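I'll show a record.
***
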Amino acid sequence: MSGLFRRKKPADEQPPELSASRDPSTVLFDGSQTTYITGDKERDSSRIRMLIDSLREVSSEMEPDEQLVSMVDRAVKVVGAERGMLFASDPGGHPILRVRRDASGNDLPDTLTWSTREVQSVLETGEPVCKKADDGADFDPSQSMINLNIRSVMCVPLKFRDALEGAIYVDARASERPFQKSDLRFFEAFADMLSIVWTNRRVMEERLKAERMESDLELVREIQGNLFPATSLEVAGFTMAGRVIPATEAGGDYYDFFRTKSNHLAMAVGDVSGHGAGPALFMSSARAYLRAYSQNAESPAAILHKLNSHLSGDMGDDMFMSMFLCVLDPHTREFAYSNAGHPNPILVHAASGELEDYKRTGFALGVEEDAEWTERGPYSLEAGDTVVMFTDGILEMRRGDEQYGRERLGESILRHKDLPAAELPDVLIKDAVAWAGLEGAADDDLTVAVLRADA
């Protein structure tokens, strides 16, 4: 609004007396500290009061959508227009009509027409437009304007964080007083305040969107949390336990233990590529199908084959899921496993303290639709033997240029191997986090699960 008027110069700097032919927009009013931009002091004063009132409205608690309508009404009034319209700009730079008002403060019909050339010009260049019918070839001679007998048009850009977001447009059919450059100055001042309202509206939209997204992610996190086993499982001399710490509100890591059709015990650890709501929802789907397929088969390789057939049709080209699946017969104490592209779990032999890897036996799920997995076992677990399963998030934690890695994880497992199985996942994650000096969330989900032969 500082461009609307300027301080009056000292007497010794006053210009010579103006001639009658001088542009009235530069007339000085003697005895005033303000130089108005038109020759009509009363009209300029009224406009400035309206701008001040509009500024108060911008600062009010009125809803942004209501403010946009009110500001368009004020813009129509301040320049004596007959119609006012507010346009947003779509990603392609095309106008989207948001507000349409007449001089009486009523909504205009959906079928109204306007000077599309002038609006498009402003959206493309970001430069204001003020044109009159007597400007000749520069004026848009479209059929709609001829039919409407539009004589004057003004259109100025609206910006949000220096980005062109839309435009405000006014026009008039009256020929006795077409829009002048001085009208454009006031109109631009209104557009500046309208941009404030526009910004408030966008900020509010972004805040509401963020709140909705946060609420959705919180719901996903809550649902996902309910899918993990609530407590450790102790049955027939074995303990199964696990812990997942998502990098965001929800993650793509997975662990589970459940019974198969013959009352055997199955345990799985998986990792969907990426993290966030998408992988979390996909993980939930994989969990449901894994449990369903385990009621009809007990071979880890056969179960993974069925699961892969389902997942391959749903996963995109850039998504996959690694998984380690073992099935334990608690009566014979034997188990078999298949490893679909997952980090090798570590077996701790209680008697010797030696560590052994359970290597991969095939591709990750979702990579090849017709993939097959080999199955290894049966293996016998002696009393105190512990199988530690994990995802790559814990191995890839960093301190500077170093990764935590399997060696440090193995050392941590040996230090704590005598702890109760239910406590081991949290302690192993805590060691990795402490080594990395992590204070906030990790870059990836952190998951550890254990199977312990207690007796």
Observations:
- The first strand starts at residue 6 and ends at 7.
